[in-house]
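Continuing the series of single-chain predictions for the mutant panel. This is the parent chain; the variants come on the following pages.
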Amino acid sequence: MRIQDLMSKSVISVAPDTRVAEARERLRAGEVDHLVVVQGKRVVGVVAGKDLASAGDDKPVADVMSRDVATIAPDATMRRAAGMMQGRAVGCLPVVDDGRLVGIVTTSDLLTALAKGGIHAAPPPGRVILRKRGPRKRAIPI
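Parent structure:
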């Protein structure tokens, strides 16, 4: 299964100079756990609700965001996403296509797909998959 099949396409983003109080409100209103911090069109960080919990209201998000942010392409596999998330403090990966933020995938998304049985080897992009085979030819007995 590919990331594009399970990512959330509605991503809430904030600028690095956004105040913590406003970021908390966006998390609450959007009913999400992560905000992607963007500067211009570039992803510069991720901030989670737990990061904002103990921060002062007037602090900028840049002071509490995780700067060690990894991004993933929409055609990457779930296995690759899980490997990238392993050992990181933030449980999400922004999905970037041609330098543009197109979605977000979280550990919750991966666990939901796993619970549904969605984990299987994804074929490489461009590989032809035959859905139906024609009738088998039988060998002529000698």
